[in-house]
Fold these 2 entries.
Entry 1:
Amino acid sequence: MLSAGLGGILVAVSQGPVWGWSSLATLGLGGTGIVVLFVWGLHELRTRDPLIDLRIMSKFPLLMVSLGSIALGFAFFVQEVSFLQILELPVRTEAGLGLSILWASMALAPCSLAMMAVAPLAATMTDRFGARVTAVLGSVISMVGYLISVVWHAEVWQLIIASVFALAGVAIGYAAIPTLVMAEVPYSMTGSAIGVNALMRSVGTSSGATVTGMVLAVQLESSAGFAAPSPGGFVVTFWLGFVAAALAAVLFWISGRRRPGVLL
């Protein structure tokens, strides 16, 4: 029921621009998803030994971590959608850099390598400063990446640098999140709580991809007979990534409550 409810809402959001926001399919799927989630929530609250204990998951610290995970996932996929498009669009458009699919992928390979490289660093930071500080720092680093892309996005090397910062920050934040979750739940709920948090990240990535695509779709302009997203449209998406990462930093920060013997 959880999967069906979320699936209905996410499909409605992603297909809304195609089907029309007031169409029967969009409203029907979205409304059905909301109803199914509501019924699922009632079932979980009335079950003696629920798979997902909503009372614990709704605790303020854990709720803030979940919302921060959605925001950071959103920031993650803003980059995944917008950077590839601006790299691959033809140079005859105002925004495009004219790379092939292969070379556009190669241009974004450094950010993937950066995500792997910072994993040991994130573990060390969590051990020394706590998971909350690490998650906040990762979000701030991602903000820096998006700020770079807002100011400089006319050359391939500029987007490479911006993507490295943006995704290295996401990786640091993602590495710290499980520790934040485990600090707030009983050992018996660890698997369930981390699974729910992973789902929240998926909600964020799905929403980020959808909203980014919608923004670029409505910011079209014709150049040399070719309709493509405008430079201004890409800047809007970069700001969206910046705001999402900033929101994640705030949510992770306010989630913390220091308790003896617990790393936060």
Entry 2:
Amino acid sequence: MSTAEYAVGTIAACAFAALLMKIVSGTEVAELLTGIISRALNTDA
């Protein structure tokens, strides 16, 4: 691959990472993960 292809790939990877960070840092995802963890820890068996 040429340097230009590496640059485009790097920019695309950074954009994808930024999108994932925005999704994961949202309140809905945080509440969902908190609910999953609390249900997993509250094993009343």
